[in-house]
Design goal:
Number of helices: 3
CATH superfamily: START domain
InterPro entries: Polyketide_cyclase/dehydratase, START-like_dom_sf
Pfam families: Polyketide_cyc2
CATH topology: Alpha-D-Glucose-1,6-Bisphosphate, Chain A, domain 4
Protein name: Cyclase
Shape: globular
Structural class: alpha+beta
Radius of gyration: 15 Å
Number of domains: 1
């Protein structure tokens, strides 16, 4: 059964600036502690990552995952292609401009292959969602301020 969560954050940046930070997947381990390594396997013609292999550590498990991205001007989403510890993962960032800021909504649905107690799964996803929003916000501000 999939576990779902979502969270919103307002970032003092444009959607394009935020998407640029998300697209720099090789840098993700520097601001998102559950990611140990990320490597782009394939890119779209515009340079954005299409397929990425990552090593993720969460809830005491280390997993190698391949995910595939879909991009547009105000949304990026990804879906799991293959992994060892999870059956399915679908996630997205939806960006809504609000003046000189952007409201970012992160959604994730995750279905594990390995049995873990529900409270551990929920706590792990909550931490991941917090990093995916507040961690992203801090990284975007760091990048745009140089």
């Amino acid at each position: 059964m999939a576990t779902k969560d979502s969270r919103e954050v307002v970032i003092e940046a444009t959607p394009e600036q935020i998407l640029d930070v998300i697209a720099d997947v090789e840098a993700t381990p520097t601001w998102s502690p559950q990611y140990e390594k990320a490597e782009v396997l394939e890119r779209f013609d515009n340079g954005r990552p299409k397929q990425v292999k990552m090593t993720v550590k969460a809830a005491g498990l280390t997993d190698e995952q391949v995910i595939e991205y879909t991009w547009d001007e105000q949304k990026v989403s990804w879906t799991l292609v293959k992994a060892g510890q999870i059956k399915a993962q679908d996630a997205s960032y939806t960006l809504t401009p609000e003046g000189d800021k952007t409201r970012v909504r992160f959604d994730i649905a995750l279905d594990l292959s390995v049995p873990l107690p529900g409270f551990i799964v929920k706590r792990t996803i909550k931490g991941g969602v917090e990093t995916a929003t507040e961690g992203l916000r801090k990284q975007v501000l760091k990048v745009i301020k140089g």
